[in-house]
Design a protein that fits this description.
Elements (H helix, E strand, L loop, with lengths): L8 H4 L7 H10 L4 H15 L6 H10 L7 H7 L30 E2 L2 H8 L15 E8 L6 H12 L7 E3 L4 E4 L4 H4 E3 L9 H9 L11 E6 L6 E7 L5 H8 L17 H14 L11 H13 L16 H5 L8 E9 H15 L5 H20 L11 E7 L22 E7 L7 H15 L1 H15 L5 H13 L3 E6 L7 E2 L2 E9 L6 E7 L2 E8 L8 H17 L14
Parallel strand pairs: 5-6, 9-11, 11-14
Antiparallel strand pairs: 1-4, 2-7, 2-13, 3-4, 6-7, 8-15, 9-10, 12-13, 14-15
Helix pairs in contact: 11-12, 11-17, 12-17, 15-16, 15-19
Length: about 575
């Protein structure tokens, strides 16, 4: 266990030993100028407030009192717990199955700002016609057995969910989680047999993902669908309850081999320090004696984010909505699901290692998968058009990234933390390597772009904006900002590490697991489960008129990249029988 400690000056921004270059960079942000210190003091006290019992503010105040009394950077770093209300607990925890009991009493808990906006469906103007069902995370589990014991499955999942406050609470419009009674008859539905068709799962998911949830009940529901090729269980939960990472970690407790998840991420202050310095430099306040206030740093961070909205993506007829449609906030109402066959995680890991060995660099699994799907899109565009592809075509992807969070799901004794679920993520902009003609070149470009972005710093910056700056704007302005960001992107992408081992629920064995989101832009979600990767794409059929080809081209790009990197195993190797 790694408990949070009170940070001293060296932890927050004043290194004990440093190179000459580091010393020059640090001295700029740590001047003992009296005017500078006074200005920061004023802003710090404004942000901290007075008499609040907030855990985050208490922690920030505690840190603030134990740092070097001079210098703006250490003082700004002391405020970092305010970036995310959940910061202030432990860095990691062993996962245990929760006790089969529901707390005898509960009290209402507040949502954070992002969750309240999701609940109210206020992120976009009503003219966009953004349905509330678009905020629902649909997780589809395919079982080995044609049917499952409905009563046993319900008992297992209630035992897992009910210890958590949000699964037994109403999501009130005023931003509270209000405990209520849970009616299993509403939350668990046994559907008709889905048949034996080749697209049976996609059809079931397509019908379910457009259904809204009853706001007068806890915002989740489970559909059990028998089928001759294996039963399907679709778990639907509103995004305000939790994000995909928290949800998958919760489900992973059903693994026979208990994984150890880093539920709470402890970030070094040095990960955020460069962002603070760069934000301040962007204001041109690098001269001696300049007064740098917290609002000025906020202003610079806003400029950093708004730079991703400078121009729309290129119009690709077979892949994106037209400029006119985007300008009006029209992104189509229909959605089609494409489920790419499960392929082995070891194949992608082998490509990751081969590329790293050949180019003497470290590359992430997300980078490889993002490159492969970019290649699938390029192959699809080439197949749908006879016109030559312009090398300067711009195709931006909005990538979901986790942010610092210390929200624990389970205590040391294995009991569920009632408030152990939440949302801790941001989205950042990525220019896809759609103009590259070769699979390896696409991976080169993808790796370089993600490296240049510096994801941890970007995530910290945007978390600060989302939690502390955006709420200060009027609703209409916030909606215009979000719509502006969406207009400049053509695809959403997320990669969620799933359970590393197989899961048994109600005595039945899960074979595969897909996550489906029907958001404004097309969405690609990748989830690993039991050694296999499961890729789900949701697209507008009015634009992507042959969506089934995406699956074919994804597998072609996967094999092509593997062969060029010297990986010759079969990515579609069948799962061994247990």
């Amino acid at each position: 266990m790694c408990p949070t400690k009170v940070l001293d000056a060296s932890d927050i921004g004043l290194p004990r030993k440093e190179t000459t270059q580091q010393s020059e960079r640090m001295s700029w942000g740590s001047r003992g100028d009296e005017k500078l210190t006074t200005a920061v003091d004023v802003e710090v006290q404004k942000l901290l407030g007075s008499g609040s019992s907030s855990t985050a503010e208490d922690l920030a105040r505690e840190r603030f009192e134990h740092v070097e009394p001079h210098g703006v950077i250490p003082r700004l770093m002391a405020l970092y717990p305010l970036f995310d209300p959940s910061v202030g607990s432990e860095s990691c925890v062993d996962v245990h199955m929760p006790a089969a009991k529901t707390p005898e009493y509960s009290v209402a808990q507040p949502m954070n700002f992002m969750e309240q906006q999701m609940r109210q469906n206020n992120f976009l103007p009503s003219s966009c016609g953004f349905p509330s069902s678009a905020w629902i995370i649909n997780t589809a589990f395919r079982f080995r057995e044609a049917s499952v014991d409905f009563a046993a499955l319900r008992e297992d999942l209630l035992k897992l969910f009910l210890p958590f406050l949000r699964f037994r609470s109403l999501a009130c419009e005023d931003g509270r989680w209000e405990p209520t009674q849970v009616d299993p008859a509403y939350h668990f539905l046994l559907e008709a047999d889905m048949g034996d068709g080749p697209s049976a799962v996609e059809k079931v998911l397509g019908a379910l993902m457009t259904q809204s949830l009853d706001i007068d009940r806890p915002l989740w529901r489970i559909h059990v669908v028998p089928g001759p090729r294996g039963a399907l269980v679709v778990f639907r939960v509103h995004h305000c309850v939790c994000d995909g990472l928290h949800l998958v970690r919760l489900l992973s407790t059903l693994c026979p081999k208990q994984p150890r998840w880093p539920v709470a991420t402890k970030w070094s202050p040095y990960a955020v320090l460069p962002a603070v310095i760069e934000m301040a430099k962007a204001l041109g306040e690098g001269t001696t004696g300049a007064v740098l206030s917290v609002p000025q740093v906020i202003s610079a961070s806003a400029k950093n984010v708004l730079s991703s909205m400078d121009a729309p993506d290129s119009f690709i007829p077979s892949l994106t909505h037209s400029d006119e449609e985007r300008a009006k906030g029209c992104f189509g109402a229909a959605r089609t699901i494409v489920l790419i066959p499960p392929h082995t995680l070891c194949f992608v890991k082998a490509m990751k290692k081969a590329y790293g060995d050949q180019h003497k660099t470290a590359v992430s699994l997300t980078t490889v998968l993002l490159s492969v799907f970019t290649g699938a899109l390029r192959r699809y565009v080439d197949a749908q058009s006879t016109a030559p592809f312009a090398s300067d075509t711009r195709f931006r992807i909005s990538i979901a990234a986790p942010t610092p969070s210390s929200r624990r799901q389970y205590t040391k004794t294995g009991d569920a933390n009632p408030d152990g679920l939440g949302n801790s993520f941001v989205a950042f902009s990525f220019d896809a390597a759609l103009g590259e003609t070769d699979a390896v070149e696409r991976l080169h470009r993808t790796h370089k772009t993600l490296t240049d972005i510096n994801v941890p710093v970007m995530a910290a910056t945007r978390a600060f904006l989302a939690n502390k700056v955006v709420p200060l704007f009027p609703q209409r302005t916030r909606q215009e900002m979000v719509l502006g960001f969406i207009k400049q992107h053509s695809l959403g992408f997320s990669n969620v590490p799933g359970p590393p081992d197989h899961i048994t629920v109600g005595g039945a064995h899960i074979q595969s697991a897909y996550v489906v989101l029907a958001t404004v832009n097309p969405q690609v979600t990748i989830m690993s489960y039991d050694g296999y990767l499961h890729v789900a794409a949701v697209v507008d059929p009015a634009v992507v008129t042959s969506p089934h080809l995406l699956s074919q081209f994804y597998l072609e790009e996967l094999v092509d990249l593997g062969q060029k990197l010297g990986v010759t195993s079969d990515p579609l190797a069948p799962r061994p029988d247990r």
